[in-house]
């Protein structure tokens, strides 16, 4: 199993061989890439590089000058600068340029590399969580200003109307206006619940190995009234395999996807097909429906928070359901996407690649 991808950029073949030997011993399942210069390194654009060891002195360029370009290509990578001689100024420049650490080649050993990678990845994850949290805070502030303003304004207006109509003895109008207030309050409550679910969709505890069918069954039970009222059919295929996951979260993921299929149904009775297949390092699920579908130009954006299709603006929802699905999948080391080849209805694929050795995730970590 490939647990990480490590790129070594150094024009000295002997140094690359030394580092490769240490890394192969430390991480036998890792994918090791090598490049003699920046151009050769950038040729690995199709790879998801996690760690980069970058030589300070390369032909015609300083390794530090390559850092910003590498971050644009691999924004979630951790970069370490190497040099033939220890130099505090080089170390300072490397850190200021975004490198996680600096090491003299004479100090390279298995224990030193292991320490650097472990510490660098830990710090990088904290940084990414902080950045994600900052983005979400901005998004939440936007939705609080925009989406909550309308129901609050409606409640204030209706409260004034109720007082006037009550004093005038228009009790039927008062009753109608109370019903409208209840709908506004319900809309606010639903939005707040969705925000809370999106902030922290993950449960505490250890991941478990559970039958895939049980995850779908839990979702269908939660949606039983909606499935019945829509006269929907849910068909499953290949769900007799086992899945390593956090069960409550994957059930919530299925609930969101099935719920979307019911919400965005066409004039036909909803038909939802759920399939699963084993991958070399995990499992892939597919959820297909015969609903109104997603226009091609929107298929890459529907997993962003608060993004809704223009033509579905009259339907209930906050645009957080698929964004929450994306967060859950991401925390299972997987991917989620809308099938670009489907011309009728919608098909969502997602993969789960949770390592068997993963440590339990804490709710305070996942809130970020």
Structure commentary:
The protein is an alpha/beta fold and 368 residues long. The chain has 3 domains: 125 residues, Rossmann fold; 53 residues; 159 residues, Histidine kinase-like ATPase, C-terminal domain (Heat Shock Protein 90, 2-Layer Sandwich). It is 47% helix and 19% strand. The protein is built from 12 helices and 14 strands. Strands 2-1-3-6-7 form a 5-stranded parallel β-sheet, sandwiched between helices. α6 packs antiparallel against α7, α7 runs parallel beside α11 and α8 packs across α10. The radius of gyration is 26 Å and the shape is elongated. The C terminus is likely disordered.
Low-confidence stretches: 310-318, 357-368
> What does the radius of gyration come to?
26 Å
Q: On the 0-100 scale, what is the average pLDDT?
A: 83
Major sheet size, sense and barrel closure: 5 strands, parallel
Count of individual beta strands? 14
Q: According to CATH, what is the topology of the largest domain?
A: Heat Shock Protein 90
Give the helices and strands as they follow along the chain.
Answer: EHEHEEEHEHEHHHEHHEEHEEHEEH
The N- and C-terminal alpha carbons lie at a distance of 27 Å
CATH architecture field of the largest domain? 2-Layer Sandwich
What portion of residues is helical? 40-55%
CATH class of the largest domain: Alpha Beta
The CATH H-level homologous superfamily of the largest domain: Histidine kinase-like ATPase, C-terminal domain
The largest beta-sheet arranges its strands as 2-1-3-6-7
Estimate the strand proportion: 15-25%
Tally of separate helices: 12
């Amino acid at each position: 199993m490939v647990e990480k991808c490590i790129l070594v950029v150094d024009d000295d073949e002997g140094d690359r061989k030394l580092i490769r030997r240490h890394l192969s011993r430390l991480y036998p399942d890792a994918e090791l890439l090598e490049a003699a210069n920046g151009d050769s390194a950038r040729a690995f654009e199709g790879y998801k590089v996690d760690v980069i060891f970058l030589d300070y002195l390369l032909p015609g360029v300083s390794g530090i000058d390559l850092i910003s370009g590498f971050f644009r290509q691999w924004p979630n990578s951790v970069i370490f600068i190497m040099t033939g001689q220890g130099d505090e100024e080089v170390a300072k420049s490397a850190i200021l340029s975004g490198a996680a650490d600096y090491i003299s080649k004479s100090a390279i050993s298995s224990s030193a590399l292991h320490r650097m990678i472990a510490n660098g990845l830990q710090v990088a994850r904290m940084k990414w969580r902080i950045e994600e949290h900052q983005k979400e805070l901005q998004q939440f502030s936007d939705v609080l200003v925009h989406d909550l303003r309308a129901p609050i304004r409606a409640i204030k207006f209706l409260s004034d109307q109720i007082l006037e109509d009550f004093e005038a003895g228009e009790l039927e109008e008062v009753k109608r206006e109370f019903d409208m207030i209840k709908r506004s309050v319900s809309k606010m409550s639903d939005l707040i619940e969705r925000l809370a679910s999106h902030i922290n969709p993950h449960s505490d505890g250890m991941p478990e190995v559970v039958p895939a069918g049980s995850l779908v069954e839990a979702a269908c039970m939660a949606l039983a009234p909606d499935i019945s009222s829509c006269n929907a059919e849910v068909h499953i295929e290949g769900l007799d395999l086992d899945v390593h996951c956090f069960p409550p979260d994957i059930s919530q993921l299925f609930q969101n996807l099935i719920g979307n299929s019911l919400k965005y149904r066409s004039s036909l009775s909803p038909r939802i097909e759920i399939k699963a297949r084993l991958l070399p390092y995990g499992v892939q699920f597919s959820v297909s429906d015969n609903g109104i579908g997603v226009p091609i130009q929107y298929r890459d954006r529907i997993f962003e928070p608060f993004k809704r299709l223009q033509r579905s603006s009259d339907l209930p929802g906050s645009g957080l359901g698929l964004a929450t699905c994306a967060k859950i999948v991401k925390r299972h080391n997987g991917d989620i996407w809308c099938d670009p080849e489907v011309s009728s209805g919608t098909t969502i694929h997602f993969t789960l690649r949770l390592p068997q050795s993963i440590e339990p995730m804490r709710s305070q970590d996942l809130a970020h």
